[in-house]
């Protein structure tokens, strides 16, 4: 058992770096962070000494959550993540060329138990024998500080960082070359459904570009995507990796796992809940989440199409000091039941890019919201838009100049950024959200 408050350093064996879920289950971001904390805690306790076959590890739950930059004392939430790790089967694979698959369908934990000792919640756990040997004697391994890796807020970014960390001191400065399908599986928290994967081009726009930007902004690595093509098709991929100097780490604010679980029960995805908690703060999130819960169960009012959009508007209004009720995330329906567009204003200058139904006020407010984002986050949306315009042969010199400026404004690029951002934030029906202008 350890409750060290110092940073945890994990030596992850090469054969345990790539984790591919098997079956219909998925690995969550918090679950993967917690698993790294379990591995690092076990290594620290063993210190190279062979344990008894019946050995189990123990730690206060609060210590593990702190190490994984999560928090929450609700035992049912903790049980969820440990049950995830105990029930989930994954395929473990080395990143080295030629090594291939190490284990197929092995469980992450052989047992886990949550109990109370002296009024404090504790966890005990054990690993399968094969994994225990990888923990005890990692002859080839990648090493990283969990406080660095836990800065990452998406599953794909965390998985990619762990792969690239192995190559930070490699003389070649690049990862192994693998086909797109390998990278999609390695960076996804679910297995392909019926063997069908997302197209690499789409996966890159949706996941990879953001993950690269996040790693470059928030960790000790700087990475770059390298694609190898045969004609127009991408056939192999690798990443250039180099170590960079980091400013002194400030402790990231822990993610409250209890609040995340409450939000998920109301239909808000884990990653979106974490984003709102980080942006608006835990207290405001908890307060407005309760307002959302009451509204969802109020049968006298219209149903909410997007709980996330509704909650975000509630939080935004609170931040601006507006106390009036909001009906965000609810489509305004006519007699036919079909959603009606807001035609109270003329279409914006880039109507062809964002759709003719969105009002000028909404367009301007979304543009302002994007321009108020941190530069790195705004740049990610610009990069996504640029890639889509390139794919459609719409990337002109004017678009290039707009992209270099780094601000979202009128024009084809601005319209594309707003469309992508609004759809991701408010859902595919965003142009019909009548109260969007109240943001």
Textual characterization of the structure:
With 439 residues, the chain is α+β, with helices and mostly antiparallel strands. The protein folds into four domains: 1-150, Winged helix-like DNA-binding domain superfamily/Winged helix DNA-binding domain (Arc Repressor Mutant, subunit A), CATH 1.10.10.10; 153-246, Winged helix-like DNA-binding domain superfamily/Winged helix DNA-binding domain (Arc Repressor Mutant, subunit A, Orthogonal Bundle), CATH 1.10.10.10; 257-319, no CATH class; 351-438, no CATH class. Helices cover 44% and strands 16% of the residues. The protein has a three-stranded antiparallel sheet with strand order 2-5-6.
Label this structure with key terms:
single chain, 439 residues, alpha+beta, Arc Repressor Mutant, subunit A, three-stranded antiparallel beta sheet, 44% helix, 16% strand, disordered N terminus
Low-confidence stretches: 1-5, 322-359, 433-439
Q: How many beta strands in the DSSP annotation?
A: 12
CATH architecture of the largest domain: Orthogonal Bundle
Strand order, largest beta sheet: 2-5-6
CATH superfamily of the largest domain: Winged helix-like DNA-binding domain superfamily/Winged helix DNA-binding domain
Morphology: globular
Q: In whole angstroms, how far apart are the ends?
A: 49 Å
Task: Please tell me how large the radius of gyration is.
Answer: 23 Å
Give the CATH level 1 class of the largest domain. Mainly Alpha
The major sheet is characterized as:
3 strands, antiparallel
Q: How many domains make up the 3D coordinates?
A: 4
Order of helices and strands: EEHEHEHEEEEHEHHHHEEEHHHHHHHHH
CATH topology of the largest domain: Arc Repressor Mutant, subunit A
Amount of beta strand: 15-25%
